[in-house]
Amino acid sequence: MKTNHIIKSIKAREILDSKGTPTIETELHTNIGVFYASVPSGVSKGIYEAKELRDNEKRYQGMGVKKAVENVEKIIAPKLKRKNFLRQKQIDDIMIKMDGTENKSRLGANAILSVSMAVCRAGASALKIPLYEYIAKLSKENTVKHKIPYPCFLMIEGGTHAGNNLDFQEFMIMTRQDCFSKNLRTGQEIYQNLKKILIRKYGKLNTNVGMEGGFAPDINLSEQALNLLMETKEKFNDKDANIILDVAASEFFKNKKYKISQKKFSSDKLLTYYLSLIKRYSIIGIEDPFAQNDWKGFQKMVKIADNNFKFIIGDDLTATNIDRVKKAVKKKAVNGIIIKPNQIGTISETIETIQFAKKHNIKIFVKHRSGETNDDFIADLAVGVGAYAIMAGAPVRGERVAKYNRLLKIEQELYSS
Ligand code: PGA
Description:
Blueprint: E1 7-16, E2 22-30, E3 33-38, H1 66-80, H2 88-99, H3 109-126, H4 131-139, E4 150-157, E5 170-175, H5 180-202, H6 222-232, E6 241-246, E7 253-254, E8 257-260, E9 263-265, H7 267-280, E10 283-287, H8 295-303, E11 311-314, H9 322-330, E12 336-339, H10 341-344, H11 347-359, E13 363-367, H12 377-384, E14 389-391, H13 398-415
Parallel strand pairs: 4-14, 6-10, 10-11, 11-12, 12-13, 13-14
Antiparallel strand pairs: 1-2, 2-3, 4-5, 5-6, 7-8, 8-9
Helix pairs in contact: 1-3, 2-3, 3-4, 4-12, 5-6, 9-11, 12-13
The chain binds 2-phosphoglycolic acid.
């Protein structure tokens, strides 16, 4: 390994994410150039996620990240100065140690991740290879067999992501045709068709969108949203376009009960409800069907998976955290996991979690957050680690299509001569 790949200095700044909430952008100055990274932020966060540092001062409704910026410039930067940025794991370990907490609450997962991502970009550039290829190397993935993951496009939003009364957070369509550009086109056509259906059925006021670009119509029942999805994907068969849900059940789990449309459900009753939905609609998978500590619910759900209803995906349950994923594997509680680098806070830990999961035949779904920036890192991450799927929101809005457009570019690089 060359030793002249040196970090010279690190700068950071407070910028706004797609919700208008502050987040952090970091600039890594090296002897081969300057590398940037910015981090996203969620609103329906799980309790097992690493902590993003917020200022809790009057400015920006308490959401400022001036302290995180300061931590990058005054605490992390001096320690990483003159370090070899090709040593991703060593650098991530230094930051983890410097932070010293279980959940990165001292320096902030937002501060640490922004540096970790920029270091990764510098590494790829030093080796003169694309970022996805560098991530594949770090992940010990077979770089000859790169595949673009299947996209899951957000169509309808509810829960904490929209100003309507839908209990479930995301109603998505996963397209699984033979190449990404076809999948993107199908997703876009289904989305635009949905807009026409919404206007016809509910009027144009119901075509406003939620935080991640999905429509947020004024409807109350999951069945109404599912009927809309079935109608809009009508001309596609189930192999090409399926429904996938992010129920985000932790958000409506209160006082030991799940509350849907003003009715209270036990875990078993909720499972029965899911079974009735799966029978009626072509649902291929559900993310977070139960709350983040309801292991039994997840375990029962995995048992009903079959060829049509395939994926039981942990998000709040597993939080990109290897210990949580180990527990989920041991308990047979999931067969897929969401990967969000900011749930754990470094690229090395993200990759370790993915490697462990893949070894145990758990499918990888790389996902964005509701507050995004135009940083397209997760597109390269998804390809590099050989993820099964990517969820980057609706096929609209700059911060969402940044990821899909990056995948188009990667596809062109990989497959056109
Ligand atoms: P969040 O949403 O980013 O607001 O936490 C979670 C998700 O989109 O899965």
